[in-house]
Automatic annotation (TrEMBL):
It comes from Aureibacter tunicatorum. This is Riboflavin biosynthesis protein. The keyword Plastid does not apply. Keywords: ATP-binding, FAD, Flavoprotein, FMN, Kinase, Multifunctional enzyme, Nucleotide-binding, Nucleotidyltransferase, Transferase. Catalyzes the phosphorylation of riboflavin to FMN followed by the adenylation of FMN to FAD. InterPro entries: FAD_synthase (IPR015864), Riboflavin_kinase (IPR023468), Riboflavin_kinase_bac (IPR002606), Riboflavin_kinase_bac/euk (IPR015865), Riboflavin_kinase_dom_sf (IPR023465), Rossmann-like_a/b/a_fold (IPR014729).
Length: 307
């Protein structure tokens, strides 16, 4: 996959088959759009082009700092590369860019910059100033454009209308299992292992404390989860359990920490990826450390049964 910052060094390929959008989470609905894009490109000896925007439009237009995203840009990049896209154009989303009308977006971006021959969009996709552009708009003006247009219908994507917002709500409620179904993979977070207070080690459940650099990254509802762990982007996958919350039995300090089963390596300052498998329980305040230790032993049994 070739990656471009805006349109720097982008040269119009043979028969560009194009789609655009935020593609947050690159979920199963997005994958259907990408699959159709690839099929059309193959049939027409063309190349696939995906336009995505960064930062997320809502962060720019609505200053919605409460919005949490399913994927950082690096996570999205990894997922799109795995999908087999030929060209990825990262368009800086600014207020100036947002002021382009739908007609200007089509002419200046889709036609002049990319040379679009085939355009594929999802059923609810909107573009241009105030989201005025739509599939209906494109159909009404199709005679003006030198490209074919195809919409992936709501039914084709999912009978319940799969969206990134729906998956965010699932994760906010701790339903990582159903989120996995819609994503087509476990939800993941990535971060760096930092030093903690090492209390877990003293009770037989050492934990790796995790710092997530991106404050816009969605972290699921507080609680205990069974998880898979990948360290330093290695191929080996470990099993474990994670606590997200405030450690009420210990110090009421917000933390994200994971106990990796059968693991004793020093991994401070290393990259860590966490894949959420299932939610085990709410975070609980225990009367003492012994009660906590006993519960963790039970949690481990439940966690192991979920793999």
């Amino acid at each position: 996959m070739k990656i471009y910052n805006a349109f720097d060094n982008f040269r119009i390929p043979n028969c560009p088959v194009v789609t655009s959008g935020s593609f947050d989470g690159v979920h199963e609905g997005h994958k259907k759009i990408i699959s159709r894009l690839k099929d059309i490109a193959k049939d027409n000896h063309g190349e696939t082009v995906l336009i995505t925007f960064w930062p997320h439009p809502r962060l720019v237009l609505e200053h919605d700092h409460k919005l949490k995203l399913l994927s950082t840009f690096d996570e999205k990049l990894k997922l799109l590369e795995a999908s087999g896209i030929d060209h990825l154009i990262k368009v800086p989303f600014t207020k100036e860019f947002a002021s382009l009308s739908s007609a200007e977006f089509i002419q200046k971006i889709l036609i002049d910059k990319i040379g679009t021959q085939k355009l594929v969009i999802g059923y609810d996709h909107r573009f241009g100033k105030n989201r005025e552009g739509s599939f209906e708009f494109l159909k009404q003006h199709a005679h003006l454009y030198p490209f074919d247009i195809e919409e992936i219908s709501r039914h084709d994507i999912d009978d319940v209308g799969l969206s990134s917002s729906k998956i965010r709500r699932l994760l906010d409620s701790g339903n990582v299992n159903k989120a996995k179904k819609y994503l087509g993979r476990p939800y993941e977070i990535n971060g760096t292992v930092i030093h903690g207070n090492k209390i877990g080690r003293s009770i037989g459940f050492p934990t790796a404390n995790i710092n997530i650099a991106e404050d816009y990254k969605l972290v699921p509802l507080n609680g205990v989860y069974s998880v898979e762990i990948i360290i330093n982007r290695d191929d080996k996958v470990y099993k474990g359990m994670m606590n997200i919350g405030n450690r009420p039995t210990i110090d009421n300090h917000p933390s994200i920490e994971v106990n990796i089963f059968d693991f004793e390596q020093n991994i401070y300052n290393k990259h860590i990826q966490i894949n959420f498998i299932d939610r085990i329980r709410d975070e609980i305040k225990f009367n003492n450390i012994d009660e906590l230790k006993n519960q963790l032993a039970k949690d481990k049994i439940v966690a192991l049964s979920s793999f």
